[in-house]
Amino acid sequence: MGDVLRRAIVLFVPPPVCEQLDEIRRRWDPVMCSRIGCHITLIHDVTDHGRASELVAAAAATTMPFSVRLGRAAHWGKSAWGVYLHVDDAAGEVAAVQARLAELEEQRWARVAFRSHVTLVHSRTTPPTIAEQAWTALADFDPGWPVDVTAIDIVEMEETTGWRTVERFELATAAVAD
Known about the structure:
31% helix; four-stranded antiparallel beta sheet; single chain; globular; Cyclic Phosphodiesterase, Chain: A
């Protein structure tokens, strides 16, 4: 893999929703659950690590904390390709932040329309038969859980330990009146 490790940009799901999601993730995809906390991916594969810090800092500085809702379960084409929860982004905050960072996306991902989601079962770490069982169990799942987003993380994949946060950028806060 060389000296350059893979990086991504994510919105981590905070407690208590993350603990509820991790119960599901540990049941159906313990490998990915142990590699990275539950999150909404903004950029799958960062192409310019230096520019990423600049763009994420600028986006965070001008984005107020916001909330989204975790919606119904779905899968990518077939369950073996991954099971996820839709992110109901009614006000478009996730999409707006992602659009500001889109130039950082590796071309193979940039060709795919952005769809905010939280992965429950990943195709790289779950056998197809287990993914099918997960889908059968989760097909009608629609938790409606609110998720408060307060930061953007740049994460890096380390082969032995999984993903770790390289930089975290807190979202803007309202100016305090004097």
